[in-house]
Amino acid sequence: MSAALSSVALGILITWAVCMISGLVMGTPVSLMLGAVVGIAAVTLFQNSLVSGALLALLAPFGILLPALALRHMGAQLGLPVQPFATAELVVILLVYVGFLAAAMGVIPVDIYRLGYAPIPVAIMVLVICAYGAASGSVFLPLVAVLGQGVWVMGWGSSNWFDEVTHATLVPILVIVLLTRAV
């Protein structure tokens, strides 16, 4: 099941990338259709190719976060009501995630990553994220946390919950978003 989920996630990310690039020169509906065609074709026609293997090696495990962010962004492009993240939220997420990565790499002598293997700490983290979502009126982060927990519990992805709800590319994504807001 993990290979199928990885193919779906890769297809969504390819769709998003093609949509955003082609959206620079064409309208949103056309760029989304083009992105969908290219995304579906890429994962079906080149499923066992060197290119898809390289993309999977570079980006996997995808988890829930990257495809969810891509779908959220494409939905916003279509005019769906998407609650934007506040700048303060993005700064806090960036700082916490950079700290998490530093701890995972041993720079900070606390092993937070190991908590992602244990059911009780994962349940507590999911509940905290859901409480934050309820307090802020946002459903995106709680949805990612709960879906990530579901995929993790079912054993469809990584054996660590953090791999389902985070991704190293989150750092450059957040930095770019924050820089574009500052300009």
TrEMBL record:
It comes from the Bacteria. The chain crosses the membrane at residues 27-46, 53-70, 90-110, 122-145, 165-182. Keywords: Membrane, Transmembrane, Transmembrane helix. This is Tripartite ATP-independent transporter, DctM component. It comes from Roseovarius pelagicus.
